[in-house]
Amino acid sequence: MSGTRKPVGTTVGDARKRTVTISFAGFNRAWAAWIGDRLERRGLRVVYQRWESPAETPLVDLLRDLSLAEGRVLIIVSEWYFQLGPRTHEEWNAALRAVVAPDPSRFAAVSLTTSPLPSATPVLGAVGLTNLGAEEAERRLLERLDLPTDPLPEPAAGARRGPRFPATMPEVWGGVPRRNTRFTGREALLNEAYHKLTSAESGAGVLTFHGMSGVGKTQLAAEYVYRFGSEYDVVWWVNAEKRVTYRRGLAELAPKLGLQTGQEYGERLRAVRDSLRRGDPYARWLLILDGADEPDQIWDLVPTGPGQVIITSRNPEWSEHNSMLLDVPVYQRDESVAFVRRRAPRLSEAEADQLADALEDLPLLLDQTAGWLNDSDLSVEEYIGLLDGGVDQDVVKVSADFPVAFQTAWSILLNKLRDTVPESVDLLRLCTFFAPGFIPVRLLREMLSDELPEQVAGLLNDPLLWNKAINQLRQYSVVRLESHEAGADEATASGESLYLHRMVHQIVHADMPEADRREFVDVVRRALAAADPRRPTDTRLWPGYAEIAPHLKYADVLQSKEPGVQTLVLNCLRYMYFSGEYTAGIKLGERAMEAWQELLGENHPRIWELSFHYVNVLRAAGEYERTEVLNRAAVEHLRETRGPDDLEHLRAASGLAADLRGLGRYDEALELCRWILTAYQGLLGEQDSRTLNAQNNVAVTLRLLGSYAEALDIDRQVMESRRTLLKGRHPWTLDSQISYSIDLRLNGRYDEAESNQVQSLRENRLVMGESNPQTLKAEYNLALCHYRRGERAKAGHVLARVLERGERVMGETHPWTLVFASAQSCFAREDGDIDEARELSEAIVARYELTLAGSHPFVAGARANQALILRNVGERDHAHDLIERSLTDMTAAVGENHPWTLGCAVNASALRNLVGDTESAAQLSNDTVTRAIETLGRTHPLTLSARIAHAADLRGLRERRQAEKIEQEALSDLEATLGKQHVHTISARARNRPHWDFEPQTT
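-> structure tokens emitted (1003 positions)
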């Protein structure tokens, strides 16, 4: 912070007479900003001068230069001000006596410390501001500068808000690490970060601190918070190493913002993002995303709005996601030397320089090494000798990304810890079987004593020994204490969470005796299993799974034969499926299948249970051919070994039916689904959840076969039964509500469909979260309800939003994203941008052609939609050829009476008419009307479209009387069914030829 600000209403001449230059250490920047603001409000001109104290410049010269500043010099006295350089008390005493004592009125000071200061400091006449409220601190400041202390009038509404009094916290504050009182240097980086964020446009204030491991990105972000935190009303720090933990951390901001939400963290997350976007109730917010090394996992959840976001990451790809980058290098040598001397006062400047050179100026390594070196009798030269080869280099293997010296330096430190408090090494090794970053050590302490091996039991059950081990690790900066949604005192008391840097994590994990490795990994596995919430379908318990999931890999849970640990794996896989974390689920499922087949054997019962859950996430991602092979093998094996009525066999068969639906083999799927339903009814009765699932699957298949009325009846029964059996907010009940609304819409009951879907969407948002795939499906169906009711603008807004979120959450090629894109393309064709429509449509066709068989009905349907775009841009012949091909392929795929085939026929007759083949057009439309009435009924919207289209074809043949009769009957039915003012009725009355849009269904 430097420069000047001229107060409004003050002339330049007056300002020069009433100028105060504030000299401050960067560490006290918040105090300088507050003091400057109070002075400016009283008409003074303020110049900010951050105190620099380069070691090569004599202190007397620096003070003399400061005395040349404009106006009176106000020094903010703190231990930081005197330590920069660092300088000795003797140097300061000499400089103060030489520069300040001869003209003390030139200087004034305020003090922020009660620590011992140089003996000559009283010459500054500092007044203390510690342990005071804002009003008393301001009064003392004004008195010291000989200024009036009369209170100022209240600022006008809407006037600029000044910085907060630094001794008060922002109104909302959470998760921020303790301030590092040894923080050194980085002044240019902090100032650059401040200017980048404050100069960014609203909604674009996202800055990523980027650099290698151990370079100090997190410490830099924490220091930024403490220096500039007085300018914010909300400061919230979130662990962003994993999507699940980030979502959880951000959701916990909801109650702090005073948002009225339920307990489900999906609802809280939506409310928080909306609040931050609007800046209500707080517009001055700062969010810190720490350890966000995988932008693809969380970039879609980064809030926008009037506030600002700081990200710490090793990944420069954040620049591709609307974030500015700030590279964080290793320390400059003068920073390294200053830091080492503050951390290890016994070292000389030359020794600190030697150490910094040997450790390549890496902050994390300097911090850990200098701390214990200060307590050691080892000289710097002896220590560097060890680095050069005094320790066995084969003991530790670490990533090539780390400095060469790191492995040896860590071995030395580990030996020091082992000699002093050996339990601290045990604790550290235990932590390495959790994921690096935030370690939920409370899970260890919650274990039953009789489940713990003797080596660990003493550590976890003895509070004194526990605190001794943690304090030893903290002393050497190996870990830092954190507490999840708790204050600092609570964190210290409970030790709920430790933060372990990934560099330390990796090297400790590698440097471990095999006996300890076997014992410690078993302890962590059992701790995770004991923390299993046990109900992955309960959205209220998802935060628990979100906390556990990142640690599965590091605890190597897939190598455990313990039933409880294996159940945890299966439950985490189910959680990932229900919560929409498909990518993570597929990775876990693949690794589990490979590990368990080798560990347990290919035909172990656990393999088939795992296969079912793994195949679910694969199918959700559209891997239908792959899942069909896996499921068919499971079905055949289970039927042969256990019999057709075995519940595991029936569950696998249900999965196979879903695969067949995904492959477009609907008749096979329906036959299998009905057999499964009959079996469940006989074994479990009508009101078992598995029977209801089977009944639901029959309805899904009937909908894909175009039997909309039958699907509606079944879905209504399932929805009502699930409400009774599972309650209203169970994910399956909510999914039934969506299915029921879809059925209503497909049956032409648009008003009922919209009414039901509005309520269903609200419930899904509350329970599942705004970006859960099931919620997106609900919102998508609501958009189509709006569209069918003629509310085009409302539908377009929702469709665009759903597609954007679908692409972010599931990816551009996910089956549901393609469903959303298909609807958006159709909307853009009729009501938006034909170029956008064509681009989307071509991408959908290409994707379906790549991933589905050529005979799949989705391929034919996507081409039918593409034909309408070609017609609209004037490519009639191409459009005609494509729709005829689509009609032929759709007929072959689902039969001539399927609504999709009838829709293709409506479009094909229009294009035949357009290219002059009027007789063939009339013959096709007449046949379509007959089959539509038989399949859907006389007043179904698709049947009405076919009737209006047939009337148009008859007019083309000059059969006007018959055309008039058919048209009037159809118009009468349209008015009775949809209403006189419905867009379809108005369009038909204006003799605009109707068309049909193919709508791929979820399977």
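The radius of gyration is 35 Å.
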